[in-house]
Every structure is written in structure tokens, then in C-alpha cells.
Amino acid sequence: MSIMELLKRLTGNRNTSANSACSRLRMVLAHDRSDLSPAILDQMRLEIMEVVSKYLELDHTGSELSLETEDRSTALVASLPIRRVRKVAR
Amino acid sequence: MAQLPSSDSTAHIDALKSHNCRSIVLCSGKGGVGKTTLTANLGIALAKLGHKTCVVDADYGLRNLDLLLGLESRIVFTAQEVISGSCRLGQALVKHKHEMNLMLMPAGNPRMLDWFNPEHMRNLVTMLAESFDFILIDAPAGVEDGFKNAVAGANEAILVVNPEISSVRDADRVAGLLSSQGTFDLIQLVVNRVRPRMVEKLDMLSIDDVLDILAVPLLGVVQEDEQVIISSNLGEPLALGKQNSPAGVAYGNIARRIQGEDVPIPDINAQPAGFMDRLGDFLSTKII
């Protein structure tokens, strides 16, 4: 880290143009690599929640499905906040 | 996702292996990132290191490798005549004026785009493998047929990228296509046209940013250098070493890494100029 970076961090200024290039690239590459459109992703999110909702009561507003990439591999990451566990007959 | 056709013939790979020849394609996806300049300079640099090197202009639509090497007036026959059998391989190869180890295989006229296919490229490489240690293939921009032809003849790739958002995105696409083909022993990255001062001000993606995003091993870094334009005006690549230039040194280092030498990749630092620049340098001092 350079003094400039430290100053920018201390002043809470993280939006340098290089930083925004990085985050925009990460977002767009995750979609490029998987060839999934945001519409399909949203469809998947709804269907996954439908299945999970059989067992758990979910917080619908906080749920999120996203693509994350690291080292040329892409992962589908779901974050589904739980309200409570349903009692299901086994 | 579009897939490259799988290699239906491996005769060229056998020829490369048996003659101990390495065939490297230089590609980027995006145009204007410096592929042709890098091809010309690495050709010169490898030749200077004593390797018999052939640079192949595979950009049949917009050929320029001859110009950058200063060989445009010496072309008699091209890859077109070699493939069609109307001349021998040796008649089409153009020897460089100063580097006797370097030859150019010129591109034919743009009508080659209509009929040239990956099998032709593999045949060309099979012929070249006998006489050379290195074949450098200058791929055209894009990921269409011309690109597919160019990569068909190679077993290694150098991905050329600028620290710039659209170039990185396109390079990622090309990296995906190359690795899905499964015929490459080695895919490496050259970050070209880096502007140190902009990187220091956090206004340009840093080398680490680019590596982090693309996850392709780094072969070299070349900084933006006005000498590159002057040298292409003259048709005398910087790697010839006539001028002392940062890019010329970087090309030489890349060539040495290609031949297996362990040459460290230096941190790129801007040359200080006025007070504001010196202040900028102070602010950019690494503290952690």
C-alpha cells in the first residue's frame, strides 16, 4: 500500500477510477464466463427459494444469488437469510 | 459459449515436438493493444538470443507485421503461394535485414480470409517446425475465423492485454476460448502499455489488479513508450537495441523469460519530473 492509498483509505475515499474498473470487471466477467443473464439468475433465485422454503422460513427481502469468480472458476453463491426452521414431517 | 473446433489433426504438434520447436500465438481479442508490435519485437529479441525464429503474419485482413519489421518492400511470395503449392516455403520467407536468425512469413492478400482454414495453418506450422526454434504467430483482433486459424497452429499462447477495462474483458474471453480448446501447453500474460504515473494515482488498473482478475501467469510488463511509435515509423523494432528505451528493455526481458531464464519482473516506476510529480511520488511510496 502506498501513502496515497493510505490517505484515500483514511479519508474513506475508496472510489478511485481503478477501483471502480476492478469492481465493474469482476461483475461483468462473472456473467461473461457463465453466460447467464440476470433474468435467468433471478428465475433461479426464485426457484431455489421455493424449494428451500419447504424446510425453512426465509427472509425474502434479504435473499441474494450472485456469481463470484476466483482463479478462472465461477461459483454460484446464494445468501438466504433464515427467519425460522419449519417443522416438517419426515 | 462458442467453442473452438477441437483440433482434428495433431500432425503439427508431433512435428513441433520432434523438431523441438515452440509455436506461440500472440492474441488479445481487442485490437490496438500492441500484438503486432510485441510479435515483431519478440521475434527480434529471440533472434538476437540466437534462436532461429519465424514470425507469421496471420492477420490476413489487416497485415502490418511486414511494416513494423521494415520488410514490406522485400516480399515476393506469401503464405498464400506456399499453401497453394505455387512456391516453396523458402521462397516466401523474408530474412530480416539485421537479424539473420529472424524470418517473416508474410500474409497473402485479404482474399485469403475466404478460403484459409485451421488445417492450412497447421500445415504451414508443420513445414516451419523443421527449420525454426520458435514460431510466433500474430493473430488478428476478434475471436472469429481469423483468430481460430491463428490459434490452430500454436501449442503456446501469449495473451496481450492493456490495463484497461475493455481490453481485460476481451482478454478474459480469449483466455476462456484458449483453455477450452485444451491443446495449449502454456498460456501466459503480457501487460502492455502500462502508464506508471496513472497506476500510482490509482487511475489505471495495476498489474496486480489485472493478474487477480484474469488469473493467467505473468510473462512480462511493458510500459507505454513513445519510442514505440518512432520505431514503427522507421520499421526498426526497439528490441534491435538501437535506442535505449524502457519498452525495448522489457521486450528483451520477455524473450529471455520465454527461453527459460529466470528474469525478475521489476516494479514499474515513473520517472520523477516536476514538483507535483515528486509530491506524487512521495505519496506513492510503499509503506506496507
3D architecture notes:
The complex is a heterodimer of chains A (90) and B (288). The longest helix of chain A has 18 residues, at 17-34. The N and C termini of chain A lie far apart (55 Å). The mean pLDDT of chain A is 80. Chain A has 90 residues and is an alpha+beta fold. In chain A, 46% of the residues lie in helices and 23% in strands. Chain A has helices at residues 3-10, 17-34, 38-52, and strands at 56-58, 64-70, 73-79, 82-85. In chain A, a hairpin with a 2-residue loop joins strand 2 (64-70) and strand 3. In chain A, the strands form two sheets. In chain A, strands 1-4 form a two-stranded antiparallel ribbon. Chain B has 288 residues and is α/β, with parallel strands linked by helices. Chain B has one domain (11-283): P-loop containing nucleotide triphosphate hydrolases (Rossmann fold), CATH 3.40.50.300. In chain B, helix 1 (11-18) runs parallel beside helix 7 (118-129), helix 2 packs across helix 13 (246-258) and helix 7 runs parallel beside helix 8. In chain B, 48% of the residues are buried. Residues 1-7 of chain B have low confidence and may be disordered. Chain A binds chain B through residues 1-8, 16-19, 21-22, 24-26, 28-29, 32-33, 35, 70-72, and chain B through 1, 165, 168-169, 172-173, 175-176, 179, 199-206, 209, 213-216, 280, 282-288. Chain B: One of its GO terms (molecular function) is ATP hydrolysis activity. Chain B: It comes from Synechococcus sp. SB0676_bin_10. Chain B: This is Septum site-determining protein MinD.
